[in-house]
């Protein structure tokens, strides 16, 4: 796909949430589309008298007239234009029915930008872009944000697209996977970087004081309230508020949080005065919030308000290419000197499941650096369960017939060793305990162009 092809098309985005419109519009503007925004069905119908868009992205939940109610009138004005409904989970049945009365397709929230892009490009008969040849320009990464895997590269590229928006973002992923690091990157790449980033863990908030912690209180509001307190939303004014483990928020507090997100106003505990705040909310959870909604442990309306856009952080076991770059970074931080991992230690770390994710890896490397007296981390410096995960040595493990595929662990071990020795194949083969010829064969299997000696 070339930008020239997309530049011939006008995309109309209809949503009453300005952040959602800007997020979707900004995403497609990157491909060259001309973007027209509408905040209501009435506004859309009025604009269609002067504008001939190529396609309409129509939210179902709109004030006054819903997107579904607007479909018959829309079809009278534009009988053939492609219409894509964007719907919350609870509206799916309505959206399917609407497909019989004018909508070409529908997507459910939270919106997956890749899925949305495919739907738009297919509807307009445009050749889609190749993800592997993505040329998204990334801002500068902080030195402590370390990754090498393709799945994390894709996640970081998505962050670069959504960070400039003020839309709420929900980060989902297992404990220890690095959700707070993702939140910090969103803030760093946002338009709010000059403002504060306030972080808190909802699981650590006292149930009796959570309202005061979030929204503040006035002096005398309750026993012990000896002075006024601003609360986190006001402290984060002009910046971002990161609420980790949002699924732990008490059910009775959720309507109050929803109101703040809708009105951008807080009322301190003990006061009847509302205060306007300009705070972007980033939330994270290791729970399946949709399941929590279905079991009535989390409010559906708050879920969709938080989940304008969803980022999923994969567990470390699904991005093994990140293990050794992260391990080397942590080792240099804790040892405060250049240390390297022995091939056997590398194999053990790559074979281990890391159920505690990045946090567990960090702790294991901190322990290894305390035990390591030299400049090489050996298997005996690692936790016993990490070493025990390696069932056989490198030469016997994961052997594949000629033309077979190497395991992810073996591939990562070879790449890590080559990087450690500056690409010298002879030295890498010696460290790996195999012949140089065997290493060259494995590199051919991997289709890696490694620097020759």
Mean pLDDT: 85
Order of the strands making up the biggest sheet: 2-1-3-4-5
* Alpha-carbon Rg, integer: 26 Å
Number of helices: 20
Question: At the fourth CATH level, what is the homologous superfamily of the largest domain?
Answer: P-loop containing nucleotide triphosphate hydrolases
Would you identify the CATH architecture of the largest domain? 3-Layer(aba) Sandwich
CATH class term of the largest domain:
Alpha Beta
Overall shape:
flat
Give the strand content.
5-15%
Give the total of domains: 3
> Oligomerization state of this entry?
single chain
CATH topology of the largest domain: Rossmann fold
Which structural class do the helices and strands define? alpha/beta
Structure report:
- The chain is flat and about 75 Å long.
- It folds into three domains: 127 residues, Rossmann fold (3-Layer(aba) Sandwich); 165 residues, P-loop containing nucleotide triphosphate hydrolases (Rossmann fold, 3-Layer(aba) Sandwich), CATH 3.40.50; 129 residues, Helicase, Ruva Protein, domain 3 (Orthogonal Bundle), CATH 1.10.8.60.
- It contains 20 helices and 14 strands.
- The strands form four sheets. A five-stranded parallel beta sheet has the order 2-1-3-4-5, with helices on both faces. It has a five-stranded parallel beta sheet with strand order 7-8-11-6-12.
- The longest helix has 15 residues.
- 35% of the residues are buried.
- Helix 19 packs across helix 20.
- The two termini are 40 Å apart.
- It has 453 residues and is an alpha/beta fold.
């Amino acid at each position: 796909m070339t930008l020239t092809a997309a530049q011939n098309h006008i995309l109309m985005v209809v949503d009453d949430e300005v952040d959602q419109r800007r997020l979707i519009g900004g995403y497609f503007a990157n491909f060259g589309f001309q973007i027209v925004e509408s905040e209501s069905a009435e506004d859309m119908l009025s604009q269609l008298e002067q504008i001939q868009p190529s396609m309409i992205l129509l939210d179902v939940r709109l004030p006054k007239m819903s997107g579904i109610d607007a479909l018959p009138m829309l079809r009278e004005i534009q009988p053939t234009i492609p219409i894509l409904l964007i719907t919350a989970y609870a509206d799916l049945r309505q959206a399917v029915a609407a497909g019989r009365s004018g909508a070409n397709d529908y997507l459910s929230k939270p919106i997956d930008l890749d899925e949305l892009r495919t739907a738009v490009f297919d509807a307009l008969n445009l050749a889609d872009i190749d993800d592997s040849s993505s040329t998204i320009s990334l801002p500068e990464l902080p030195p402590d944000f370390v990754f090498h895997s393709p799945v994390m590269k894709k996640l970081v590229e998505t962050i670069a697209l959504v960070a400039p928006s003020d839309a709420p973002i929900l980060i989902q992923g297992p404990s220890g996977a690095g959700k707070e690091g993702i939140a910090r990157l969103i803030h760093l790449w946002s338009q709010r970087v000059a403002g504060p980033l306030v972080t808190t863990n909802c699981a650590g908030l006292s149930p009796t004081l959570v309202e005061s912690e979030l929204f503040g209180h006035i002096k005398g509001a309750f026993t012990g309230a000896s002075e006024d307190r601003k609360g986190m939303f006001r402290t984060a004014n002009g910046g971002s508020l990161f609420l980790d483990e949002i699924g732990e928020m008490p059910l009775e507090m959720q309507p109050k949080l929803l109101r703040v997100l809708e009105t951008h106003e807080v009322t301190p505990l003990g006061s009847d005065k509302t205060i306007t705040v300009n705070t972007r909310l980033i939330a994270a959870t290791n729970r399946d919030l949709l399941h929590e909604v279905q079991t009535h442990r989390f409010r559906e309306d708050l879920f969709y308000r938080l989940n304008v856009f969803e980022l999923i952080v994969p567990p470390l076991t699904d991005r093994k290419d990140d293990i050794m770059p992260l391990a080397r970074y942590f080792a240099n931080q804790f040892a405060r000197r250049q240390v390297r991992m022995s091939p056997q230690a590398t194999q053990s770390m790559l074979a281990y499941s890391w159920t505690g994710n990045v946090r567990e890896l960090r702790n294991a490397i901190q322990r290894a650096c305390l035990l390591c007296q030299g400049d090489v981390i050996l298997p005996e410096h690692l936790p016993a369960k990490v070493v025990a995960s390696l069932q056989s040595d490198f030469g016997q493990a994961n052997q594949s017939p000629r033309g077979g595929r190497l395991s992810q662990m073996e591939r990562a071990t070879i790449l890590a060793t080559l990087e450690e020795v500056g690409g010298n194949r002879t030295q890498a083969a010696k460290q790996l305990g195999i012949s140089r010829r065997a290493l060259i064969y494995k590199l051919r299997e991997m289709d890696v162009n490694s620097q020759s000696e």
